[in-house]
Amino acid sequence: MLSVGILVFDDVEILDFSGPYEVFSTAARVHGRMNGNSAAANLFKCFLVAPAMRPVRTRGGMKVLPDCVLTPSADLDVLIVPGGDVSAILNDDAVIRWIAAQHPGTVITASVCTGAFLLAKAGLLNGLDVTTHWEDQDDLQASFPALTVKRNVAWVDCGKVVTSGGISAGIDMSLHLVERLAGPELAAATAKQMEYRWLQ
Question: Which conformational region is residue 198 in: left (phi greater than 0), alpha (psi within -120 to 50 degrees), or beta?
Fold first, then answer.
């Protein structure tokens, strides 16, 4: 089983974290059905990680209760850092240090939308091609000149680090991650189950 930790924080964009959560949780269910519904067939375990154990108020006003506070690095196989209004969380040194500490132990560290700013501040994007929401691409490039922003793409896969464009692009990226981690058959079946038109 692969653990998929998704960071949440005040002013996080709802679909930035709930889209990937839906992809991985649906993939786990579909994988289970394809393998006899046994508990051992569960491929992904998703959970929400936050700076504190309290309700997180999303950018849209919805409140979300995280599953745990910043976890030890050994607990994550995949880390997904969503975006939204990141102006406050970008200055939370504990969170930035935590993201940096997770990266050596993850199989994949990924961002959705302006979550790329958090990965960049943690030092994970230096020398890489990356993307983010179209509205924030110029700012990301200016703020972190050691990276190269790619435009008009849903995601950029650099191996251990994957970044996506804004909001719904995180769903496309997450399906791509399912394809990488568990194969194209499961990724396609997951997109079909979700009735989602996947941009591959």
Answer: beta
Stated pTM of the model: 0.95
What's the per-residue H, E or C state across the chain? CEEEEEECCCCECHHHHHHHHHHHHHHHHHHHHHCCCCHHHCCEEEEEEECCCCCEECCCCCEECCCEECCCHHHCCEEEECCECCCCHHHCHHHHHHHHHHHHHCCEEEEECCHHHHHHHCCCCCCCEECCCHHHHHHHHHHCCCCEECCCCCEEECCCEEEECCCCHHHHHHHHHHHHHHCHHHHHHHHHHCCCCCCC
Q: pLDDT by residue (tens digit) across 33-55?
A: 888 765 556 899 999 999 999 99
Distance CA 59, CA 140 (A): 20
Is residue 17 within 8 A of residue 8, CB to CB? The reply is yes
Residue with tokens 């745990």: 68
Half-sphere exposure of residue 69: CA atoms within 13 angstroms, side-chain side: 5
Cβ atoms within 10 Å, residue 52? 11
